[in-house]
Fold this sequence. Notes:
The protein is mainly alpha-helical and 261 residues long. It contains 11 helices and no strands. The chain has a domain at 182-249. It has helices at 20-51, 61-69, 73-76, 82-99, 113-123, 128-133, 152-168, 171-176, 206-219, 231-245, 249-260. Helix 1 packs across helix 4 (82-99) and helix 4 crosses helix 5 (113-123).
Amino acid sequence: xxxxxxxxxxxKTTEIELKVALSDRLKHLREEARENSFEIxxxxxxxxxxxxxxxxxxxxKEFHDWYAQNDLNQLFGRITSTFSKYAAAGEIVxxxxxxxxxxxxxxxxPLSLRALYxxxxxxxxxxxxxxxxxxxxxGDDKEALIHPNAxxxxxxxxxxxxxxxxxxxxxxxxxxxxxxxxTIYVRKDIYRFHVKTGDHLGKVDLSDTxxxxxxxxxxxxxxxxxxxxxxxxxxxxxxxxxxxxxxSFGLRVKKTAKKKR
Length: 261
């Protein structure tokens, strides 16, 4: 008796002969996946633009109701965390596809949702000239940082190094601003992920902390107050927990263990 879904089985031996037809098929599937993923990201960005209140960062009740009634958490995850990553990815795809140099670099963008999200965060803090250079340099061994297979970890690491370099030049400012005014804490469930699916479960996500710090900097006069965030350490821990919670983590650990034998 046949069981399971015939669509989701390893291809037959006759289908994986090392010929041009096979490589063409794989490339076509990759491009199809890329186009479909990018379109989903762009829809998420459009939804955020229309239904999110820019001053509060909250979505309308109409949007929340529609999201829940149509089980869109199955596609995007939670509105307050994962959906924001889809929207950010859509904005970066739109930027390089429509707004920057006639789409010159759109084919070089990574497909990964998390990588595109990290790229969107990086774009907020560096110039367009500096961003363009990363299609040619910035990665390991002097290779490009931004390419189709770039990972979120690589982009986040580059981002953290950039912020660290900026912080080194602010020692004189730290001696000038040396009276503690307040301490802000974030919920510990920022590091909470589903042990099987890898989905983020905490009430506060990394993007929430990033927005909070950004708002503080915008609200407080830099001539009177010095905001020193702990985002680097939080981001590093978050990425480690996120990576460990991913369904593929167990397979990667086993593969590494085999190599060491």
